[in-house]
Amino acid sequence: MVCVPDISTWTLIFLILAAFSAGWIDAVVGGGGLLQLPAMLLGLPNATPAQILSTNKISSLFGTATSAVTFGVKVRPDKKTVIPLAILAGLGSAAGAVVATRIPMAWFKPIVLVLLIGVAIYTALKPSLGARTALRFDGREHYLAACGVGVVIGFYDGAVGPGTGSFLIFALVGLLGYNFLQASAKAKIANVATNLGAIGIFALHGAPLWKLGLIMGSANMVGGLLGARTAVARGSKFVRVVFLVVVSGLILRLGYDVFFG
């Protein structure tokens, strides 16, 4: 087992707080990596990119799994949609992780930035979007669309990662027609699968810092539990507002990387 790098107590506290906050955000709308990944880059300047990415996935898995269970119990997403969505997302994420080291990050960031801007504008201009469930497809077409969402966004999560939860929610709301609360529940379950798929590939290369990942994962789990309970209690309107805030943050973060990074 790889030990925690030689970091100060204050740095560890900083990483734990970042993991807790990321877990809360992830549970509500996804995009917790906006906090956790930059925090790890600051706190672990001597770690390799593979170590940071894989350890980030381990930490995120705890919060995502916790919020997925909470959503599963309280929202009860339909299994016929969420199971194939999660399986295909996990396989897509594993495939993305395999090619992650071969594809320049510079290719992805401008594309992701444009997509996020489009998502934010579309969501902001359509206040009724995601207020209620109005499925756009029936039967086989519905499940094929869900599987397509899983493969594409799962691959993106394994290869790049930022904003995966937000993309999943937007696709389930905008393409399939779920309300934001139902979309969040399904996205969390799919996100568990994408994390597992990527971790499996990274673990084969001995990349994860397991002990640090477990410590941060505990904080992420508490944040995920509280975030899921908040989302269920406040409903789709609250989730939509937080969704727009997080997507705006992702746009600013990626915009800075594209133009000044």
From TrEMBL:
- Which domain of life does the UniProt lineage start with? Bacteria
Q: Which UniProt keywords apply?
A: Cell membrane, Membrane, Transmembrane, Transmembrane helix, Transport
Can you tell me where the transmembrane regions are? 12-35, 82-100, 106-125, 162-181, 238-256
Entry's localization field: Cell membrane
**One Gene Ontology term, aspect cellular component:** plasma membrane
Give the similarity note: Belongs to the 4-toluene sulfonate uptake permease (TSUP) (TC 2.A.102) family.
Q: Mind telling me what this protein is named? A: Probable membrane transporter protein
Instruction: Recite the lineage of the species.
Output: Bacteria, Bacillati, Actinomycetota, Actinomycetes, Propionibacteriales
